[in-house]
Design brief:
about 280 residues; single chain; two-stranded antiparallel ribbon; eight-stranded mixed sheet; 10 strands; alpha/beta; globular
């Protein structure tokens, strides 16, 4: 790509999203009230369970009756570009113990905190009037920790000081914000990063994985390509849509290997295809 081609601008992207409603419809570009949220979240859960069947809490085709019980340690996930907490509430809290949520847009992170606080209080409706009941937060068996920031500067190994936390607190009184992650989930946000920034973020994320079974999951729209990497720039929100080869080049440059890739089916017509990639260190 030549230097004259447009590239994502962080501030322009944040300014755009700050004008959108802080709800599912806003973060999903007008698709928040139809079938997309449920289809997407169920597809994400299944993809993660296919890779880490030990996360299943009930016997299933993915986890047999004879499977050994999970370890007693708490399972941690990072949800980046998290918006109002949709993936945190609809995907990750169903499968893991603790979620760290990162979002740079102030109205979105404020709404995510509102939903978390309402869930902690056992309320079904938050201050904005949306139905919420985040799994495991009211009984404090699970937790969500909130950070405001952008991927360009965020380090998952040392995330800094959180804005807030709801749900479970470590018994020893020490924080766990610098603990490593079993899952790092990146969905519908990586288009805001230039290639170099994305490679560097993935390299930092790789260092934050807990062990050899830990995963980075990327779930993004992919554009068409003609046997070579391609990108489409959207001036409205200052983002790239990358092609499959463009993503794979970035993953290679970041020192990551693809262990599974899958198209998300069942989404509305007229959208770019959505693809999931599960990544581990090369």
């Amino acid at each position: 790509m030549s230097s004259t081609n447009p590239v994502p601008d962080l501030e322009a992207g944040i300014q755009y999203w700050a004008t959108q409603p802080a709800n599912y419809d806003g973060v999903l570009g007008g698709y928040g009230t139809g079938s997309l949220p449920r289809v997407d979240s169920l597809g994400s859960r299944r993809f993660l369970l296919e890779l880490l069947p030990e996360l299943s809490t009930v016997p299933s085709p993915l986890r047999s009756l004879s499977a050994p019980p999970s370890e007693s340690r708490r399972v941690r996930a990072l949800d980046v570009g998290a918006g109002v907490g949709r993936v945190t509430s609809d995907v990750l809290l169903h499968l893991v113990s603790d979620v760290v949520l990162l979002e740079p847009v102030e109205p979105f992170i404020d709404e995510a905190r509102s939903r978390g606080k309402a869930s902690e209080s056992g309320l079904e409706i938050n201050d904005s009037g949306y139905r919420v009941l985040w799994k495991g937060i009211a009984d404090r068996s699970k937790s969500v920790t909130f950070f405001k920031g952008a991927l360009q500067s965020f380090d998952p190994v040392a995330p800094g000081t959180p804005l807030d936390r709801v749900g479970y607190l470590p018994q020893d009184g020490d924080g766990d914000t610098e603990s490593k992650f079993d899952v790092i989930w990146c969905q519908w946000c990586l288009g805001h990063l230039k290639d170099d920034d994305l490679v560097q973020f993935l390299q930092r994320s790789k260092k934050a994985l807990r062990d050899v079974r830990s995963l980075i999951v990327v779930k993004e729209n992919v554009c068409r390509e003609q046997n070579e990497p391609a990108t489409v720039f959207d001036e409205q929100d200052s983002t790239f849509t990358r092609s499959d080869l463009a993503f794979k080049n970035v993953f290679r440059d970041a020192g990551l290997k693809i262990i599974r890739e899958k198209i998300q089916h069942g989404l509305p017509q007229g959208l770019y295809p959505v693809k999931m990639y599960a990544l581990r260190e090369t």
